[in-house]
Design goal:
Length: about 180
């Protein structure tokens, strides 16, 4: 950090004169505003007392700016609103993609459930079974899970619970083979 060196009265007057005794940030003029000399590149960031690094500022603007360099321009409300609108569009797009994925997972689960137990419904099938089907669908290609369900339906036990255990065994074996 640079050490602050006091400005001479002559340098201050030359800066005020060059800037027309007007705050270069907001346009305030005496006697309603107390003018000061501000460092464009702040002393805390290595700015010097060179006249090209000095600017006329009113008391309020100089205190509000503090050690922030002038190249850090605050966003306007319109820019902030546009940025928020863009974020909202991205969130909506993300939600749409995620919903399509959830719908596909649900559709795949019901395709397998229907191959395993035709005319199955949420009332006729245990939630645990449906979760197991989703798990197998996440570990195996869909056609392999449907093949397992069709094998069980064609030659498996007649009771649904036995049929489901047989289906799970086939799927676990396929997972182990991978």
């Amino acid at each position: 950090m640079s050490e602050r060196i006091q400005l001479s009265k002559k340098t201050r007057f030359e800066v005020f004169k060059r800037d027309g005794f007007c705050c270069q940030y907001c346009g305030a003029v005496p006697p309603k505003a107390l003018l000061e000399v501000d460092h464009i590149d702040p002393v805390c960031n290595g700015g010097t007392n060179d006249i090209d690094n000095l600017i006329t500022a009113c008391f309020d603007c100089n205190r509000g700016k503090a050690g922030i360099p002038l190249n850090v321009v605050p966003k306007s409300l319109a820019e902030k609103a546009a940025e928020i609108a863009e974020h909202e569009k991205q969130i909506a797009g993300y939600r749409e993609v995620m919903q399509r994925q959830l719908d596909r997972i649900e559709d795949d689960m019901w395709r397998v459930a229907d191959a395993l137990i035709p005319e199955s419904s949420i009332d006729g099938m245990s939630r645990d079974w449906l979760q197991s089907i989703k798990h197998f669908n996440s570990k195996l290609p869909l056609h392999e899970v449907i093949d397992a369900a069709e094998i069980v339906f064609a030659r498996g036990p007649s009771r649904e619970s036995g049929r489901f255990r047989y289906f799970c065994g086939i799927c676990w074996n396929k997972i182990k083979e991978q």
